[in-house]
Design goal:
The chain has 151 residues and is α/β, with parallel strands linked by helices. 46% of the residues lie in helices and 17% in strands.
């Protein structure tokens, strides 16, 4: 599933955000799940700038409901949230939409959390705070290929 970043970077036009947005012609649906509005808004802005469609949820339960309706290509999800935490939501999301790629986010990373997230189907855990360029790199690397004509 993981592609060579250097090859992708050349194909989409290097590090410039203009080349990044220009090459992301087909709009992809991405869900951002975090109980902190600032994190949701920052990630949402980066994804929208890249041409993606953003859905936002404040907890795992809301995320599961959105996935039932939308089946996003990619999910950025916090581990620690109220109502339903990210690891619980991960299990539900993978049961509903096994093809959806899920990246967990946490400020409190441990080997135990990383292992549990991977066992439950997450691609990896992203440590918060993160850099904007790090998110752009992830979007380029894990952008699913859609058949021509499909949005």
């Amino acid at each position: 599933m993981r592609r060579n970043f250097d090859v992708l970077q050349k194909r989409i036009g290097g590090n410039s955000s203009r080349g990044f947005k220009k090459k992301m012609k087909r709009r992809i649906e991405i869900l951002v799940v975090d109980d902190q509005p600032g994190v949701r808004n920052l990630l949402g802005s980066i994804i929208e700038e890249a041409g993606g469609v953003v859905y936002k949820a404040k907890d795992g339960l809301e995320a599961v409901e959105i996935v039932r309706q939308v089946h996003p290509c990619l999910v950025f999800m916090d581990v620690k949230m109220p109502v339903m935490n990210g690891l619980e939501a991960l299990v539900e999301i993978k049961a509903i939409a096994p093809e959806t790629l899920v990246i967990m986010m946490t400020a409190y990373i441990s080997e135990e959390v990383k292992k549990e997230a991977n066992e439950k189907g997450a691609l990896f855990c992203l440590t918060k705070p993160f850099e904007v360029e790090e998110i752009k790199k992830i979007l380029r690397e894990y952008r699913p290929e859609r058949p021509e004509g499909e949005v």
